[in-house]
Design brief:
The complex is a heterotrimer of chains A (269), B (383) and C (313).
Chain A: H1 10-39, H2 55-62, H3 64-97, H4 103-115, H5 118-132, H6 138-163, H7 166-174, H8 179-190, H9 192-208, H10 211-216, H11 224-232, H12 238-268
Chain B: H1 2-9, E1 14-25, E2 28-39, E3 43-47, H2 54-62, E4 69-74, E5 77-78, E6 89-92, H3 104-114, H4 119-132, H5 148-160, E7 166-170, H6 178-195, E8 198-203, H7 206-212, E9 215-220, E10 223-228, H8 230-235, H9 240-245, E11 250-256, E12 261-264, E13 267-270, E14 282-287, E15 293-296, H10 297-302, E16 309-321, E17 325-332, E18 337-343, E19 355-361, E20 366-368
Parallel strand pairs in B: 3-8, 3-9, 6-7, 7-8
Antiparallel strand pairs in B: 1-2, 1-4, 4-5, 9-10, 11-12, 11-14, 12-13, 14-20, 15-19, 16-17, 16-19, 17-18
Helix pairs in contact in B: 3-4, 3-5, 4-5
Chain C: H1 2-8, H2 12-15, H3 19-39, H4 47-70, H5 77-84, H6 86-119, H7 122-137, H8 140-151, H9 156-163, H10 177-202, H11 205-213, H12 218-246, H13 250-255, H14 263-272, H15 277-301
Helix pairs in contact in C: 4-15, 5-15, 6-7, 6-10, 6-12, 7-10, 10-12, 11-12, 12-15, 14-15
Classes of the chains: A mainly alpha (269), B alpha+beta (383), C mainly alpha (313).
């Protein structure tokens, strides 16, 4: 018997759990390490650090370049989230509710940006915006981010739409609501978990996006990952550790929000 | 019990009228040329197994499906091009379909909000509905905090609050356990009597259909194969399919010898007077198990066969005790299996292997001249 | 569908010159157009996203692919160059061997983790799963940077190994393919664990009990029953990781060296440093082709369609 731990021999179980523990530590190592380093006093990233300090945070927050980049990142991520959800919503409805042929193929088409290597999307979109003269604009950032965020919103909205019992919407219609009223008053509240999850995914994708952003960036407009990228290539200053910690912090925050929302839904459902 | 309400079913004029209604999906006819009049104030049930077309017909009434051809009229006016939200029909769905994000009160108030009802009037009507379904103290709860039976009552209240002309119910009690289902069936019957609303009810449960409705329409393969009160459909099924679908039945294959006599395994039996039978025509005889008697050889010898009764010799294969009743399975010399049912209070002093005489009154047996072999299997009827 | 196919065939009545025939013909045309509307019911909602992707994703992508056969001169010159030049062939070799190694290592590390998550009590399993999700969703750049610092010559790992006396000289673990493989294996573990764990969770423990009742030893049970049951999860996870590894840019660019490039870096370099769009596009086309072919196999392994009509009425 292999699937119940008590039936496994003690040695085998010990071996498996030790291995697992080590792998879990391996997964956590770089994350914990970078957060610790951001508080370390060594300029040369010596570990364990000779002392603890907040001076790198001071440097980060007093540097206009870093602050501008962080602000731009936030702006791009929020706009990306809004547009990805707005585009993903009708698409998910068509793919789940539509009764036309080729829905499978269209679904594949819409998830293609998730599969085609980012580098290629980046180069292709870069070529287009180069021609149009849009590189280095907020527009080019948001558009390129929406391309890769869209599959995430479509997929999570599709998942919750498939779970949503359509007869609830029909019930609203038979109660006198027009189809559109029913969708707004009943279906949207019903699929809110999927919409929120899709939005969070879109936010995280945009917040962390490097390849597209590096291509779209200009000296006047860059996101936090771009600023990190360019700085990284020159030296490994601990300020990057600060930026990393902030990126991680926001990701964790978004994950916690998502988990809290999921729990609330489980309780109320 | 159906006999009690039978008289009320005959009253009233036609409210809804389905004319040659069809629904095709490609080559497949889900609803095949149905015509039906639904009377004002009646409780009509669509009974059939899944895929028989009953739910599709209901969906077309509600407006969620568009007929491929045919006409649906209410009070003489066509409904076909009226969108569902303007049909003024109430509907209770299979899985209740309450709005999960709204409280019980707001669920019931939803149709009134959509109709922009003034708030005082809205409150009054919602209160009245909460009272009707006895959920006053649950008004603030969310649907997920209610039991299945309570949810169903909310769904009914929501469907009734705007006083629709017609209430459609799509297997609304299917998800509940047996006891609760029976309670709600009683409530529903009382509600119908009190409000006088027209109810079209869909179910696959024949007992439920009998318990609730004044008339039953039996669906099979997209057609209505039987229409009438539960009593009539059970006692005098219009065809072999209805006979085998409703309750249990014994089928005997006979060869006609005249209009009132037919041969069964070389023995003449009297049958109901049936016109235009010709000699050696195949005839199907249907006897309900509870209409037949099984007598031991001794009993049979002491009790002479009454006039107008038939008697067939058979051998007992099994006797089953089912609580209030007993069933006795027998097989005739020619290999025809029959079942005889009796109240256990009456007793049936038989055991497997006994030779018996099976008797029934010729007037209790139905005669069919046309049938398909598949009609004789229970659970047929779906595509 | 059969119905419309039949109605397209010219019927004798419709081809007859009589008025009745004409009317019937018209009715047929009408029926066709309504069935067309029926067939595309609900499809109009696709328009905004299709327009967006068409304009900003498909058009540029096709544009890019066309450049491979148009620039600098029309023809297949870029492709010839890509395969003929030994330096470029080296790039292809690097790409595939790194992707293969990364898949292997992430499988080796991901399998026990996925297994343990299914075995341990639920609370613990949830924590392990949270760790996996955390590492998946925290900034890629931050994690790569962290590895850069960890693996460098004066980094913690080298120091620890030297302090333990295992090595005398710092190992060169960054700015070469070793660094790339370590960093990418780390990044890909979640993509193995998640599908694999879902597969393992779905295995009925009774099947394994049945296996041992039938006399299988734990090892036979593992190899003959458990592993085959995990196969779909293993394959789809591995294929996904392999495909993703082929197209990864950030980690190889930071942890790898200048002389041992992979295909994505090569593409960016051709575009940014040499402005050689033709060659970049040929390489991109090759990468897309490989990706799509592998992804096709990945889809074949998936048990059900994602948009399947589960709520069809």
């Amino acid at each position: 018997m292999l699937l119940t731990p008590n039936a496994m021999s003690r040695r085998m179980r010990f071996g498996l759990y030790t291995t697992t523990g080590l792998i879990a530590l391996f997964l956590l190592l770089p994350i914990v390490f970078i957060v610790l380093l951001s508080f370390g006093s060594s300029q040369w990233l010596v570990f364990p650090p000779p002392g603890w300090t907040l001076k790198w945070y001071g440097q980060f927050f007093s540097n206009a370049d870093w602050m501008d980049a962080a602000y731009a990142s936030l702006k791009v991520a929020i706009l990306t989230t809004i547009f990805a959800v707005a585009l993903g919503l009708p698409t998910a409805f068509a793919l789940v509710r539509g009764r036309f042929r080729g829905r499978e193929m269209l679904y594949g088409l819409f998830t293609l940006p998730m599969i085609v290597p980012l580098v290629i999307i980046a180069v292709a979109v870069y070529a287009l915006f180069l021609k149009l003269g849009y590189t280095g604009t907020m527009f080019s950032f948001v558009v390129s981010h929406v391309i890769v965020a869209l599959p995430f919103t479509i997929i999570s909205i599709i998942n919750s739409l498939k779970l949503f019992d359509q007869s609830i919407e029909d019930a609203a219609v038979i109660c006198g609501a027009s189809r559109l009223q029913a969708i707004f008053k009943v279906t949207f509240p019903g699929i809110r978990p999927g919409m929120v999850a899709g939005g969070l995914f879109a936010f995280l994708v945009s917040w962390d996006e490097v390849v597209l952003s590096v291509m779209m960036a200009s000296p006047t407009l860059q996101t936090l990952p771009v600023k990190m990228w360019t700085t990284l290539r020159q030296d490994l200053t601990p300020v990057i550790a600060v930026a990393s910690t902030l990126l991680i912090g926001l990701s964790v925050l978004v994950m916690v929000i998502a988990a809290a929302l999921r729990r609330r839904n489980e309780v109320s459902a | 019990m159906s006999a009690v309400i039978q008289d009320t079913a005959e009253q009233g004029k036609t409210l809804v009228s389905l004319r040659n209604l069809n629904k095709h999906y490609g080559d497949f006819a889900a609803v095949d040329n149905i015509s039906l009049d639904i009377k004002d104030g009646e409780f009509l049930t669509f009974l059939g197994s899944s895929g028989s077309g009953k739910s599709t017909t209901l969906s077309m009434l509600a407006g969620f499906e568009t007929p491929s051809s045919g006409e649906i009229q209410v009070n003489g006016q066509s409904l076909v091009n009226v969108p569902p939200h303007k049909r003024d029909i109430g509907m209770v769905f299979q899985r209740y379909s309450l709005f999960p994000h709204l409280s019980v009160r707001d669920n019931i108030g939803f149709p009134l909000d959509i109709r922009k009802q003034a708030s005082a009037e809205r409150e009054r009507r919602v209160e009245a509905m909460l009272k009707l379904v006895q959920l006053e103290q649950f008004a603030h709860r969310r649907p997920s905090q209610l039991s299945g039976g309570q949810q169903q009552r909310v769904a009914i209240a929501r469907a009734l609050v705007y006083e629709p002309r017609i209430l459609l119910m799509d297997e609304p009690l299917g998800a509940l356990d047996k006891k609760l289902r029976e309670d709600l069936q009683d409530e529903l019957r009382q509600l119908h009597r009190r409000l006088g609303i027209t109810i079209v009810y869909v179910t696959h449960d024949q007992e439920e259909a009998m318990r609730l409705s004044q008339r039953i329409a039996i669906f099979s393969h997209g057609k209505i194969v039987g229409l009438g009160t539960g009593y009539d459909l059970y006692q005098n099924p219009p065809n072999a399919f209805v006979a085998s679908f409703l309750g249990n039945s014994n089928f005997l294959k006979l060869k006609a010898q005249g209009n009132a006599v037919a041969m069964f395994e070389g023995q003449p039996l009297s049958i109901r007077l049936t016109s235009s039978l010709h000699t050696d025509q195949d005839v199907l005889l249907m006897v309900r198990p509870e209409k037949a008697l099984a007598l031991s050889m001794k009993q049979a010898a002491s009790e002479p066969l009454p006039a107008g009764w038939n008697e067939v010799a058979a051998k007992v294969t099994e006797v089953l005790f089912l609580g209030e009743s007993l069933t006795c399975s027998v097989v005739t010399a020619g290999g025809t299996a029959m079942t005889v049912k009796a109240l256990s209070a009456g007793g049936m002093p038989l055991s497997a292997g006994d030779q018996v005489k099976v008797r029934w009154a010729a007037s209790d047996a139905c005669v069919y001249t046309q049938w398909a072999e598949s009609d004789l299997n229970k659970a047929a009827g779906a595509h | 569908m059969k119905m419309t196919a039949a109605s397209r065939q010219p019927t004798p009545a419709a081809s007859a010159p009589s008025a009745a025939g004409e009317a019937q013909g018209k009715a047929k045309v009408m029926k066709d157009s309504t069935s067309l509307a029926q067939r595309w019911r609900g499809a109009s909602n696709l328009v905004p996203a299709l327009l967006f992707l068409g304009l900003f994703f498909f058009a540029p992508l096709i544009g890019l692919l066309l450049r491979g056969v148009m620039e600098p001169v029309p023809g297949l010159g870029n492709y010839e160059q890509l395969f003929a030049n030994s330096a470029y062939a080296r790039v292809l070799f690097n790409t595939f061997s790194v992707a293969g190694l990364v898949t292997l290592f992430s499988l080796l590390l991901g399998f026990p983790l996925a297994w343990a998550i299914t075995l341990v009590p639920r609370g613990w399993g949830r924590w392990l799963l949270n760790i996996v999700l955390l590492s998946m969703w925290t900034s890629l750049l931050a994690r790569t940077y962290s590895w850069l610092v960890l693996l460098q010559a004066s980094g913690v790992i080298n120091k620890a190994l030297m302090a333990m006396g295992i090595i005398d000289q710092p190992l060169e673990m960054v700015h070469n393919l070793t660094g790339v493989v370590i960093g990418m294996s780390y990044i890909m573990i979640p993509f193995i664990v998640l599908p694999l764990q879902a597969t393992m969770q779905a295995i009925d423990p009774m099947v394994l009990q049945a296996g041992s009742i039938c006399g299988a030893s734990p090892w036979t049970n593992f190899f003959k029953v458990f592993l085959p049951l995990c196969r779909s999860g293993l394959f789809s996870g591995a294929l996904m990781v392999f495909v993703m590894s082929l197209g990864y840019y950030v980690t190889p660019a930071l942890l790898g060296g200048a002389q041992n490039m992979m295909l994505p870096e090569f593409i960016v370099q051709q575009v940014q440093s040499f402005l050689n769009w033709g060659l970049a596009s040929a390489a991109a086309a090759l990468l897309i082709l490989i990706t799509l072919v592998l992804f096709y196999f990945y889809l074949k392994l998936q048990p059900e369609s994602p948009v399947g009509s589960s709520n069809a009425r």
